[in-house]
Amino acid sequence: MMAHEQFAEDLALYALGSLEGEAAATLERHLDECQACRQELARLEGDMALLALSTSGPAPPQRARQRLLKAMAREPRSLRTVFMRRRWWTLAPVFASLVLAIFAILLWRENARQRDRIDALKADAANNQASFEEAKHVLALLTDPSAMHVTLVAAQSKPQPAARAIYMPRNGALVFMASNLAPLAPEKTYQLWLVPLHGDKPMPAGTFKPDPNGNAMVMMPPMSPGVEAKTFAVTIEPDGGSATPTMPLVLVGS
Ligand SMILES: [Zn+2]
User: Fold this and answer.
1) Ligand 1 centre from 87 Cα, in Å?
2) For residues 17 and 100, what is the distance between their CA atoms, to the nearest angstrom?
3) What is the dihedral of CA 26, 12, 67, 105, to 10 degrees?
4) How far is the centre of ligand 1, averaged over its atoms, from the C-alpha of 3 (Å)?
5) Distance, CA 82 to ligand 1 centroid (Å)?
6) How far is the CA of 61 from the centre of ligand 1 (A)?
7) Cα–Cα distances in Å, from 211 out to 117, 204, 208, 240?
8) Averaged pLDDT, 23-34
Protein backbone atom coordinates (compact mmCIF):
# COMPACT_ATOMS: atom_id res chain seq x y z
CA MET A 1 0.00 0.00 0.00
CA MET A 2 2.82 2.34 0.91
CA ALA A 3 4.42 1.65 -2.42
CA HIS A 4 1.25 2.76 -4.28
CA GLU A 5 0.95 5.94 -2.16
CA GLN A 6 4.52 6.72 -3.01
CA PHE A 7 3.75 6.48 -6.72
CA ALA A 8 0.44 8.39 -6.67
CA GLU A 9 2.07 11.73 -7.37
CA ASP A 10 4.43 10.30 -9.98
CA LEU A 11 1.50 8.64 -11.78
CA ALA A 12 -0.29 11.96 -12.27
CA LEU A 13 2.91 13.64 -13.41
CA TYR A 14 3.65 10.69 -15.69
CA ALA A 15 0.17 10.92 -17.20
CA LEU A 16 0.81 14.60 -17.90
CA GLY A 17 4.13 13.74 -19.54
CA SER A 18 6.02 15.74 -16.91
CA LEU A 19 7.89 12.96 -15.13
CA GLU A 20 11.48 12.64 -16.27
CA GLY A 21 14.75 10.86 -15.62
CA GLU A 22 15.25 8.37 -12.78
CA ALA A 23 11.75 9.02 -11.33
CA ALA A 24 10.15 8.06 -14.67
CA ALA A 25 12.33 4.95 -14.98
CA THR A 26 11.48 3.88 -11.41
CA LEU A 27 7.75 4.36 -12.04
CA GLU A 28 7.94 2.41 -15.29
CA ARG A 29 9.62 -0.47 -13.46
CA HIS A 30 6.83 -0.37 -10.87
CA LEU A 31 4.15 -0.20 -13.56
CA ASP A 32 5.61 -3.34 -15.11
CA GLU A 33 4.76 -5.34 -12.02
CA CYS A 34 1.81 -3.44 -10.50
CA GLN A 35 -1.58 -3.81 -12.11
CA ALA A 36 -3.27 -1.41 -9.66
CA CYS A 37 -0.98 1.45 -10.73
CA ARG A 38 -1.37 0.56 -14.40
CA GLN A 39 -5.15 0.84 -13.97
CA GLU A 40 -4.79 4.14 -12.11
CA LEU A 41 -2.58 5.48 -14.91
CA ALA A 42 -5.13 4.37 -17.52
CA ARG A 43 -7.86 6.14 -15.56
CA LEU A 44 -5.83 9.36 -15.35
CA GLU A 45 -5.08 9.26 -19.05
CA GLY A 46 -8.74 8.57 -19.78
CA ASP A 47 -9.72 11.58 -17.69
CA MET A 48 -7.29 13.79 -19.56
CA ALA A 49 -8.58 12.55 -22.89
CA LEU A 50 -12.11 13.46 -21.77
CA LEU A 51 -10.88 16.88 -20.69
CA ALA A 52 -9.05 17.31 -23.97
CA LEU A 53 -12.09 16.31 -26.00
CA SER A 54 -14.28 18.67 -23.98
CA THR A 55 -12.12 21.74 -24.60
CA SER A 56 -14.49 22.83 -27.34
CA GLY A 57 -17.48 22.32 -25.02
CA PRO A 58 -18.64 24.53 -22.16
CA ALA A 59 -16.90 22.57 -19.38
CA PRO A 60 -14.88 19.40 -18.83
CA PRO A 61 -16.89 16.44 -17.50
CA GLN A 62 -17.31 16.85 -13.77
CA ARG A 63 -16.23 13.31 -12.92
CA ALA A 64 -12.95 13.60 -14.83
CA ARG A 65 -12.13 16.98 -13.38
CA GLN A 66 -12.82 15.78 -9.85
CA ARG A 67 -10.60 12.77 -10.26
CA LEU A 68 -7.72 14.88 -11.53
CA LEU A 69 -8.22 17.37 -8.69
CA LYS A 70 -8.17 14.47 -6.25
CA ALA A 71 -4.90 13.26 -7.75
CA MET A 72 -3.53 16.77 -7.25
CA ALA A 73 -4.75 16.90 -3.65
CA ARG A 74 -3.17 13.55 -2.86
CA GLU A 75 0.26 15.03 -3.35
CA PRO A 76 -0.24 18.75 -3.62
CA ARG A 77 3.33 19.91 -3.96
CA SER A 78 4.75 18.75 -7.27
CA LEU A 79 1.53 18.41 -9.14
CA ARG A 80 0.31 21.82 -8.08
CA THR A 81 3.65 23.21 -9.18
CA VAL A 82 2.97 21.81 -12.62
CA PHE A 83 -0.43 23.46 -12.76
CA MET A 84 0.83 26.73 -11.33
CA ARG A 85 3.87 26.91 -13.48
CA ARG A 86 2.01 25.88 -16.57
CA ARG A 87 -1.50 27.07 -17.12
CA TRP A 88 -4.13 24.70 -18.48
CA TRP A 89 -3.68 25.60 -22.10
CA THR A 90 0.08 25.04 -21.97
CA LEU A 91 -0.75 21.41 -21.31
CA ALA A 92 -2.35 21.34 -24.74
CA PRO A 93 0.43 19.24 -26.35
CA VAL A 94 -0.32 16.42 -23.90
CA PHE A 95 -4.01 16.66 -24.65
CA ALA A 96 -3.33 16.99 -28.34
CA SER A 97 -1.34 13.78 -28.34
CA LEU A 98 -4.19 12.03 -26.54
CA VAL A 99 -6.69 13.40 -29.02
CA LEU A 100 -4.40 12.27 -31.83
CA ALA A 101 -4.32 8.78 -30.34
CA ILE A 102 -8.12 8.73 -30.28
CA PHE A 103 -8.28 9.98 -33.85
CA ALA A 104 -5.77 7.30 -34.82
CA ILE A 105 -8.14 4.67 -33.46
CA LEU A 106 -11.09 6.26 -35.28
CA LEU A 107 -9.05 6.40 -38.49
CA TRP A 108 -8.02 2.80 -38.06
CA ARG A 109 -11.70 1.85 -37.72
CA GLU A 110 -12.60 3.95 -40.76
CA ASN A 111 -9.81 2.26 -42.72
CA ALA A 112 -11.14 -1.14 -41.74
CA ARG A 113 -14.55 -0.04 -43.02
CA GLN A 114 -12.98 1.24 -46.27
CA ARG A 115 -11.20 -2.09 -46.67
CA ASP A 116 -14.56 -3.86 -46.39
CA ARG A 117 -15.97 -1.50 -49.04
CA ILE A 118 -13.04 -2.15 -51.37
CA ASP A 119 -13.50 -5.90 -50.90
CA ALA A 120 -17.17 -5.48 -51.88
CA LEU A 121 -16.19 -3.47 -54.98
CA LYS A 122 -13.67 -6.14 -55.92
CA ALA A 123 -16.39 -8.79 -55.60
CA ASP A 124 -18.67 -6.63 -57.82
CA ALA A 125 -15.92 -6.31 -60.42
CA ALA A 126 -15.38 -10.08 -60.36
CA ASN A 127 -19.13 -10.60 -60.85
CA ASN A 128 -19.16 -8.13 -63.76
CA GLN A 129 -16.20 -9.91 -65.30
CA ALA A 130 -18.02 -13.25 -64.92
CA SER A 131 -21.17 -11.81 -66.58
CA PHE A 132 -19.06 -10.36 -69.37
CA GLU A 133 -17.33 -13.71 -69.98
CA GLU A 134 -20.73 -15.42 -70.06
CA ALA A 135 -22.07 -12.84 -72.53
CA LYS A 136 -18.98 -13.37 -74.72
CA HIS A 137 -19.61 -17.11 -74.80
CA VAL A 138 -23.28 -16.62 -75.68
CA LEU A 139 -22.35 -14.18 -78.46
CA ALA A 140 -19.66 -16.53 -79.76
CA LEU A 141 -22.21 -19.33 -79.93
CA LEU A 142 -24.86 -17.15 -81.59
CA THR A 143 -22.47 -15.83 -84.23
CA ASP A 144 -20.45 -18.98 -84.91
CA PRO A 145 -21.30 -20.12 -88.46
CA SER A 146 -20.63 -23.75 -87.49
CA ALA A 147 -23.26 -23.61 -84.69
CA MET A 148 -26.49 -25.52 -85.32
CA HIS A 149 -29.68 -23.44 -85.23
CA VAL A 150 -32.86 -25.47 -84.82
CA THR A 151 -36.34 -23.94 -84.69
CA LEU A 152 -38.86 -26.08 -82.86
CA VAL A 153 -42.50 -25.67 -83.90
CA ALA A 154 -45.73 -27.47 -83.13
CA ALA A 155 -45.47 -31.08 -84.35
CA GLN A 156 -46.75 -31.66 -87.91
CA SER A 157 -46.66 -27.97 -88.81
CA LYS A 158 -44.22 -26.50 -91.29
CA PRO A 159 -41.58 -24.08 -89.91
CA GLN A 160 -42.52 -20.51 -90.84
CA PRO A 161 -40.21 -17.51 -91.15
CA ALA A 162 -39.86 -15.97 -87.72
CA ALA A 163 -37.62 -13.50 -85.97
CA ARG A 164 -36.99 -12.02 -82.57
CA ALA A 165 -35.75 -8.51 -81.88
CA ILE A 166 -34.22 -7.64 -78.53
CA TYR A 167 -34.01 -3.89 -78.18
CA MET A 168 -33.00 -1.53 -75.38
CA PRO A 169 -34.21 2.03 -76.16
CA ARG A 170 -32.07 3.54 -73.38
CA ASN A 171 -28.81 2.89 -75.24
CA GLY A 172 -30.00 1.87 -78.68
CA ALA A 173 -28.67 -1.68 -78.30
CA LEU A 174 -30.34 -4.13 -80.68
CA VAL A 175 -29.97 -7.83 -81.44
CA PHE A 176 -32.19 -9.39 -84.10
CA MET A 177 -32.35 -13.11 -84.92
CA ALA A 178 -34.39 -14.61 -87.76
CA SER A 179 -34.96 -18.19 -88.84
CA ASN A 180 -36.59 -20.05 -91.74
CA LEU A 181 -36.19 -17.08 -94.08
CA ALA A 182 -36.77 -17.71 -97.79
CA PRO A 183 -33.63 -17.51 -99.94
CA LEU A 184 -33.11 -14.14 -101.66
CA ALA A 185 -32.84 -13.35 -105.36
CA PRO A 186 -29.35 -12.14 -106.31
CA GLU A 187 -28.80 -8.37 -105.74
CA LYS A 188 -31.41 -8.39 -102.99
CA THR A 189 -31.10 -8.11 -99.20
CA TYR A 190 -33.35 -8.28 -96.19
CA GLN A 191 -33.62 -5.03 -94.26
CA LEU A 192 -34.76 -4.50 -90.67
CA TRP A 193 -36.78 -1.40 -89.75
CA LEU A 194 -37.61 0.22 -86.47
CA VAL A 195 -40.88 2.18 -86.42
CA PRO A 196 -40.58 4.69 -83.57
CA LEU A 197 -43.34 5.19 -81.03
CA HIS A 198 -43.39 8.92 -81.74
CA GLY A 199 -43.44 9.68 -85.50
CA ASP A 200 -44.24 7.17 -88.22
CA LYS A 201 -41.10 7.31 -90.35
CA PRO A 202 -39.43 3.86 -90.18
CA MET A 203 -35.74 3.96 -89.34
CA PRO A 204 -33.33 1.55 -91.08
CA ALA A 205 -31.88 -0.87 -88.51
CA GLY A 206 -29.49 -2.95 -90.58
CA THR A 207 -29.44 -5.28 -93.59
CA PHE A 208 -28.77 -9.00 -93.58
CA LYS A 209 -28.69 -12.09 -95.76
CA PRO A 210 -29.73 -15.50 -94.41
CA ASP A 211 -27.40 -18.50 -94.44
CA PRO A 212 -28.38 -21.56 -96.54
CA ASN A 213 -30.55 -22.74 -93.62
CA GLY A 214 -32.53 -19.47 -93.60
CA ASN A 215 -30.97 -18.12 -90.37
CA ALA A 216 -29.77 -14.55 -90.02
CA MET A 217 -28.75 -12.11 -87.35
CA VAL A 218 -28.37 -8.34 -86.99
CA MET A 219 -26.24 -7.27 -84.09
CA MET A 220 -25.78 -3.78 -82.70
CA PRO A 221 -26.51 -1.60 -85.74
CA PRO A 222 -25.67 2.06 -84.99
CA MET A 223 -29.03 3.08 -83.51
CA SER A 224 -29.38 6.41 -81.75
CA PRO A 225 -30.18 5.97 -78.06
CA GLY A 226 -33.47 7.04 -76.51
CA VAL A 227 -35.79 6.06 -79.40
CA GLU A 228 -38.83 4.12 -78.16
CA ALA A 229 -39.84 1.46 -80.69
CA LYS A 230 -43.44 0.76 -81.66
CA THR A 231 -42.82 -1.89 -84.31
CA PHE A 232 -40.02 -3.85 -85.94
CA ALA A 233 -40.43 -4.98 -89.56
CA VAL A 234 -38.42 -6.72 -92.28
CA THR A 235 -38.59 -6.01 -96.01
CA ILE A 236 -36.67 -7.15 -99.09
CA GLU A 237 -34.60 -4.34 -100.60
CA PRO A 238 -31.95 -3.91 -103.30
CA ASP A 239 -28.42 -4.74 -102.15
CA GLY A 240 -27.09 -2.06 -99.81
CA GLY A 241 -30.50 -1.30 -98.35
CA SER A 242 -33.00 1.52 -98.86
CA ALA A 243 -33.86 4.74 -97.04
CA THR A 244 -37.56 3.85 -96.94
CA PRO A 245 -39.07 0.37 -96.83
CA THR A 246 -40.34 -1.32 -100.00
CA MET A 247 -43.62 -3.12 -99.49
CA PRO A 248 -44.66 -5.79 -98.70
CA LEU A 249 -43.49 -6.47 -95.15
CA VAL A 250 -41.95 -9.96 -94.87
CA LEU A 251 -42.01 -9.98 -91.05
CA VAL A 252 -43.58 -7.58 -88.61
CA GLY A 253 -43.86 -7.42 -84.85
CA SER A 254 -45.01 -4.85 -82.31
ZN1 LIG B 1 1.47 0.20 -7.57
Assistant:
1) 29
2) 15
3) -90
4) 6
5) 22
6) 26
7) 50, 21, 10, 17
8) 89
CB atoms within 10 A of CB 240: 9
pLDDT in tens, 183-203: 999 999 999 999 999 887 999
The whole-number average pLDDT for the span 95-108 is 61
Which tens digits make up the pLDDT trace of 243-252?
999 999 999 9
Residues making up the chain, counted from first to last: 254
Distance 43 CA to ligand 1 centre (A): 14
Three-state secondary structure readout of 11-69: HHHHHHCCCCHHHHHHHHHHHHHCHHHHHHHHHHHHHHHHHHHHHHCCCCCHHHHHHHH
Kindly give the distance from the C-alpha atom of residue 39 to the centroid of ligand 1, in angstroms, as a whole number: 9
In the reported structure, the alpha carbon of residue 30 is separated from the centroid of ligand 1 by a whole-number distance in angstroms of 6
Q: Which long-range contacts (CB under 8 A, 24 or more apart) does 50-59 make?
A: 51/95, 52/94, 52/95, 52/96, 52/98, 52/99, 53/99, 53/102, 55/95
